[in-house]
From TrEMBL:
PANTHER family: BTB_POZ DOMAIN-CONTAINING PROTEIN KCTD9. Coiled coil: none annotated. The lineage of its organism: Bacteria, Pseudomonadati, Pseudomonadota, Gammaproteobacteria, Enterobacterales. InterPro entries: 5peptide_repeat (IPR001646), Pentapeptide-BTB/POZ_domain (IPR051082). This is Qnr family pentapeptide repeat protein. It comes from the Bacteria.
Length: 217
């Protein structure tokens, strides 16, 4: 099957639902409102370097969709239905996730989230007010990401890179942060209740406070 290459195309709602697309190129394409439930994209490009524009997935259904080794830089994921979305080993710099819904509502007050965003570059992505609780979010680069009002309660953020990152702007209680580069995290200003840290991280955080940790062995 020849490699799929589309440019400035409007994607019909059910065109790729449940399909597996490998090494495709989608330049300046409009996936808004498309149903991509169970669709797999492997090694695909959604970013046009010439115009520096990403694709629009605004209001798309991304339930259990998967992007592996893809370039999703500058993509518009606003208002997507994204329960179970997988993004793995991909470029996602500057992508906009505002309004993306990773939740399954069981009742008016009960819900759970599901997302697998792993080993990806999320630098300068916008997660403002997004709820990603108890999700698999490890080994990502979060440098400069906007997480104002977001909730990562109980998620696995281990091995991440958090430079130029405002820890005060989101909720991180009960997260796994072991092995992460914590940037300018100030334990005096951020609620770290239930957060998992390793001993090397703790030494670094205490050192910033001017406290000398003495080995009493």
């Amino acid at each position: 099957m020849p490699t799929l290459h589309l440019q400035s195309a409007k994607i019909e709602r059910d065109r790729f639902r449940g399909e597996t697309i490998t090494n495709g190129k989608f330049l300046n394409c409009d996936f808004s409102g498309a149903d991509l439930t169970d669709t797999q994209f492997i090694g695909c490009f959604f970013y046009d370097e010439a115009t520096q524009l990403g694709c629009s997935f605004n209001r798309a259904v991304l339930k259990d969709a998967s992007f592996k080794s893809c370039d999703l830089s500058m993509a518009d994921f606003r208002n997507t239905q994204a329960l179970g979305l997988e993004i793995r080993e991909s470029k996602v710099q500057g992508a906009d996730f505002r309004g993306a819904n990773f939740m399954n509502m069981i009742s008016a007050r009960t819900y759970f989230c599901s997302a697998f965003i792993i080993k990806s570059n999320l630098s300068y992505a916008n997660f403002s007010k997004v709820v990603l609780e108890k999700c698999e979010l490890w080994e990502n680069r979060w440098n400069g990401a906007n997480v104002l009002g977001a909730s990562f309660l109980g998620s696995d953020l281990s091995g991440g890179e958090f430079n130029h990152f405002d820890w005060r702007s989101a909720t991180f209680n009960h997260c796994n942060l072991t092995g992460a580069e914590l940037g300018e995290l100030d334990i005096r200003l951020v609620d770290l209740e239930g957060v998992q840290l390793d001993s090397q991280q703790i030494v670094g955080l205490i050192d910033r406070l001017g406290i000398i940790l003495v080995n009493d062995a």
